[in-house]
Amino acid sequence: MQNPVQAEQVHLTTFYETLDRERERTEARRGDEQVAGTRNRQALHQRDGRVRDLGARLARLNAAEEGLYFGRLDDVDGEVLHIGRIGLHDEDYEPLLVDWRAPVARPFYVATAVHNQGIVRRRHIQTRLRRVVDIQDEQLDLERTAAGASQAGTGVIGEAVLLKALEARRTGTMESIVQTIQADQDRIIRSGLAGILVVQGGPGTGKTAIALHRAAFLLYTHRAQLEKRGILVVGPNPTFLKFIGQVLPSLGEDGVRLVTIAELYPGLTASRPESAEAAEVKGRAELAEVIAKAVADRQWVPDQPVHVTVERTVLRLDPTVVAEAGGRARARRLPHNQARPFFLTEIIDALTDQYADIIGADPLGGENLLDDYDLEELRNEVTAEPAVQELLHRLWPNLSPQQLLLDLYGDEDRLAAAAPQLSPLDREHLLRYGDDWSPADVPLLDEAAELLGDDGQEAARLRAERAREIAYAQGSLDLLSGSGSTDFDEDDESEILTAKDILDAEALAARYEAEDDRTLAERAGADRRWTYGHVIVDEAQELSPMAWRAIARRCPLRSMTLVGDVAQTGAAGGGTSWRNALAPIFADRWRLAELTMNYRTPAEVMDLAGHVLREIDPTAKAPQSVRSTGVKPWHVDVAAADQAAYVSKVAGEEVQHGQVGVITSRLRLELVQEAVGGLADVTVLTVAGAKGLEFDSVLVVDPEGITLESPRGLRDLYVALTRCTQRLGVIGELPDVLRDAGAWDARL
Ligand SMILES: Nc1ncnc2c1ncn2[C@@H]1O[C@H](COP(=O)(O)OP(=O)(O)OP(=O)(O)O)[C@@H](O)[C@H]1O
């Protein structure tokens, strides 16, 4: 008789054979589609769509290779369900393997001995390459097993497999947790698509992992709806995005765009460094009013009449005429640049009428001598006059968001007029020169873009792109017609249609366009006004009110998952309560889910971090660690001058335990980086750079400096102390809160 491992191996082999067959089939179908010819544009379009869908299917099949099959449920009636990373059918379309996201797979993540949902046994199958290496069973039938009773108490599902995953060395990138998702996490992953879900959880509670698995779940469950618009994931920094970047592809899902706030505005890289104070001012909600006022101020009404000369005739423009034309243009409720032509028309009309009155006046006092044709000529003259154009530009300029902000930041008076509500010191933080952008500028550019509307640059860019496509297509056709006729004698030639006969350059260009092979993420990234089917924000507590406005614009449907921890806020402009952070934009239209188990940080380390948390918020409860390692954190006080060298020595020793993260104050960053530079598996970061990351072993350097140098110092320290999966060392003078903690070991 087969033992259970052998029995599961038989299943596994069948699943891989099916996967291979499915892959071959999909690849062959894609190949057939690619060569299938058609001249009909719509058919071409549809064909390209099918090729893309098959490509996506193939990517999903390929991604399922590792860990294809990992779970099995046996129910009271003897029915068996095999659960894997992807769903597979046999030749008769009978299900063989069920996708982990399918509703029927749910008991694998939530059934307990107390609420067994008809399941008597849950089996975890561990595989490597295409072999079963181990299995673990959980009996969920209380009546039949005594083991069930103890299962009910732990609250952890698949404990042995979970602990193995948590204790494993980190690879430097986050991995999928499909095999060990816990019940409280599963509830969040499968929560409905509509509305705003806020997930609050302490360090290591799996918020990031869950947010990504939720994206995969939503894409699976609402594919038709989400595939067109995609999902946007916003993270705190590029290192973090790199850290999490493989999770969704490993679950077979693309169609997700990962960005930091700095990348939200197409066509610019916002990497200009700036002070925390300046970033805080730029993030305030009242900056929306400042930007609106800055735009309004560019619609100028002069105090005095202004004069402009057209062909030696002096024309006069009264402030009331400007004010009334401006009022009517604004009443159209269009963005500034789109309202501009209406304003311009009225001003030009007013000037033309005046011009006509002067030029066409009948010396004998009769009616004006000019006819409609003459008036049109005069109008053209007025419009073409550079002095008139200059005046119109001063009265109501066509503006890009960049220009608006540069003009504002670069001019004290403009700034004072637009931002009277800011203190002189706050305004000073905004004053600057240069045309590069910081991350905190991005939401302001976005705000300005909304109010200004298209300044013509987008249309010009599209026109240029189209002209390039047509020129390219023309070149291709010329090449074809140049080589086409030489192979045939004269008689044949009349029978044979060349590409040039069938297509002209414009049609061919349209075809290239239809074959836009950019991914959804690329297309969405190039379009500021793209709106997503769902938006996920990680470390959401860091977002400023202005950043929330920019994010909200990307999801008018308000289908969002916001994950974070208000005890970990580092940004001066970030939120320390969800209610306060979200109220200005979403009022109270959001639902809250909380996570309380810490899967990353061992109990010994969390004990220590708990002291800091209590100082931040005496009412907050630290998440409970699911495991302890028996290794206490250690502390060594090393004089500032010797710290970098000491860190380098210790980091070199710690790499034997895996990936090492050195988290230091900004003050010491350079010195430590220099000293540690080049050590393999060691990363040196500030707290801001370490947000969301984790390492096997962490060295926190200069904890007192970390606490003092930032407006939210204790929260930063809390983040730094909770980044390790195994070991924590603290180097340098301790702040009071840690001195009293007493949970230390000496470094051996
Ligand atoms: N159910 C689970 N099974 C296996 N590993 C898990 C599970 N839940 C979380 N983890 C692991 O725990 C670690 C912490 O998870 P994650 O980074 O998602 O937490 P977080 O709440 O975002 O933390 P932080 O707020 O501190 O950044 C990761 O290594 C993650 O893979």
From TrEMBL:
Query: Which SUPFAM superfamilies does the UniProt record give?
Result: P-loop containing nucleoside triphosphate hydrolases (SSF52540)
Keywords attached to this Swiss-Prot or TrEMBL record, sorted alphabetically, are: ATP-binding, Helicase, Hydrolase, Nucleotide-binding
Keyword Mitochondrion tagged: no
Residue ranges constituting the UvrD-like helicase ATP-binding domain according to the UniProt record: 180-602
The entry's protein name is DNA helicase IV
GO BP term, example: recombinational repair
Task: Provide one Gene Ontology cellular component.
Answer: cytosol
For this protein's source organism, the top of the classification is: Bacteria, Bacillati, Actinomycetota, Actinomycetes, Propionibacteriales
Give the matching Pfam families: AAA_19, UvrD_C_2
One GO molecular-function annotation for this sequence?
3'-5' DNA helicase activity
The domain of life is: Bacteria
Enumerate the residue ranges of region (Disordered). Answer: 21-47
Asked whether the keyword Hydrolase is assigned, the reply is: yes
Q: Give the binding site residues for ATP.
A: 201-208
Q: Where is the composition biased (Basic and acidic residues)?
A: 21-33
